[in-house]
Amino acid sequence: MTFRIPPVSQEWLSKASAYQNTLTKPPGSLGFLEEIGVRLAAIGQTLQPSLGKGAVVVCAADHGVTAEDVSAYPSEVTAQMLLNFVLGGAAINQMAGVSDADVWVLDVGVNRDAVADTGGKAGPWFLHTRKVRWGTGNIAQQPAMTRAEAEEAIQAGIDAARRAIQEGATLLAAGDMGIGNTTAAAALTAALLGLEARDVTGRGTGVDDQQYQKKLEVVRTALARAQARLGDLRIADPVEVLAELGGLEIAAIAGVFLAGAEAGLPLVTDGFPVTAGALLACQIQPAVRDYLFAGHRSVEPGHTRQLGALGLRPILELDLRLGEGTGAVLSFPILRAAARVMAGMATFSQAGVSPTLKP
Hints:
Blueprint: H1 10-20, H2 32-44, E1 54-61, H3 76-87, H4 91-97, E2 101-109, E3 126-129, H5 147-166, E4 171-177, H6 181-193, H7 197-200, H8 209-230, H9 238-245, H10 248-262, E5 267-269, H11 272-284, E6 292-296, H12 301-310, E7 314-316, H13 326-330, H14 332-344, H15 348-351
Parallel strand pairs: 1-2, 1-4, 2-3, 4-5, 5-6, 6-7
Helix pairs in contact: 1-2, 2-14, 5-9, 5-10, 6-8, 6-9, 6-11, 8-9, 10-11, 11-12
């Protein structure tokens, strides 16, 4: 898979930073907002960045690993929540409604035909069905999918993102839905970053102590199985690692970020499974990293490890752990504010304000 994703220009980063310091405020007084604005200006190659409508592509799939009792909820909830997204009743729909964002729902592997439940009607939301397979294999016992299926799921995410961009998205996030996907995300993150299962495995939907120990053991078993097939997972082909350990929706999320970076859009990560997709996208094409912003920090312990590996500072700290793209979309107004500061504030010379401190 080939992508034309140029790194963000260092020249533009320097130019935007210098311009930020001419605005009518003490340098640094807007804190992290200034860094965000500088990066937005450099991504758009303009000192007048503007962010309009946003979009979140919520990627959904089921996981065979739920047979190992790693989740507090049954796998049927994935399809039930997919219908909830389409009917506008989920948390992401409400967050998107107050954040000027469209919700695009992408079914790449839900183990039920949820489209039939709506009669094909999507209300104000958008639904695409690109079912690669009906859920992944149980990663504790077998590969999640074939390489061809992994590539097909990535392509599904690419196509959904491109459609959202064609419909006017200027800011792009990914969301996730898939019971069992924090187990897959933990295994994939540990493999890509060379970490132990305990470093990245959290309680996901809220499992009890016994289930958590089971979840840890499942992640360890999956990693050992994949390592026996691929060798050192840190240097293995990332798409092969995905096929062994990942989820169909995580693959699609990587595709969303790859397509968004290729289009030159600011990209926003959500929680643990979505950031696993971002990590994967960066392994496939490192320049994706330049376009990423972290919408928030999840309470999942592995999320902090992911953000550290990507060098991303979260915009929000709200103890979220829902997924769906909720934390990403909640950060959209802050990103727009950072752009507006760059584009709308007067410079010292324009305002006739002295930029110098008292002697």
